Amino acid sequence: MELRRLRRDELPVGCIALARSLIGCVVVRALDGDVACGRIVEVEAYPHGDPASHAYRGRTARNASMFAPPHRAYVYLIYGTAHCLNVTSDPEGRGAAVLVRALEPLGGIEAMRRRRTGAAPRDLCRGPGRLCAALAIDRTLDGIDLLDDDRLWLAAPQGPRGRIVRSPRIGITRAADRLLRFYEEGNPFVSGPRVAADGTAGRRLDRRRKAVL
Fold it and tell me: What backbone phi and psi angles, to 5 degrees, belong to 88?
């Protein structure tokens, strides 16, 4: 498998556009001689002015990277144990990012298994905390340029991209009905209860709240 680093002009600036464009792209992690990677199959957008966004009340020490120029990593800790990877999306100072929710593992599977002992193959990167654990992503990578860093970077899409659908985001209370979760319908590595391997459950449960792009 050949991985080509994305060029800056291949990714849009703007939260919604970037969220859609990231589906199918590859997250690559190099650490201690191991290279692990996975194809992005699910994201959530947190645009400028969104009440559910960490940036809504302004810049803090925790969210400072969210205000960086586009295509930087914003990595934060939740529940004191799990990290989440985001890609900044807007011009510097606006505070917007796309949360990477799930990856389809492509390479470095053994390294992922060592970091996620006992996890089934389908669950290695199915969820934002799990994927960060599998790829050893933590706050030391917060703020790096994902198009120009050798530790963690974004590669061009791999394989044909399936139909992209959207639904409300998972696990939030503010702006909970906004259709800002984007995912590849039917992909078994997508997180969340509304998605089945064949896509049928997603169509049944989301039929009133899901929009096809």
Answer: -65, 150
pLDDT value of position 213? 41
Query: Across-strand partners of 126?
Result: 102
H or E element that contains 88: strand 82-88
The continuous run of DSSP H or E covering 35 comes out as strand 34-46
Nearest to 127 by CA among 84, 169, 186: 84
Place of tokens 């006992």: 118
User: What is d(CA 204, CA 194) in angstroms, rounded to the nearest whole number?
Assistant: 8
Task: Give 81-126 pLDDT, tens digit per residue.
Answer: 899 999 999 999 999 999 999 999 999 999 999 999 999 999 999 9
Structure tokens at 32: 């201690």
Report whether 88 contacts 70 (CB < 8 A).
yes
What residues contact residue 29 under an 8 Å CB cut-off, 6+ apart? 35, 36, 37, 108, 135, 136, 137, 151, 152
Sign, CA torsion 173/52/74/146:
positive
Produce one character per residue of 127-145: b if its CB has 16 or more CB atoms within 10 Å, e if not. bbbbbbbbbbbeeebbbbb
Domains of the chain (ranges; CATH) run 8-160 (3.10.300.10)
Tokens of 158: 């791999």
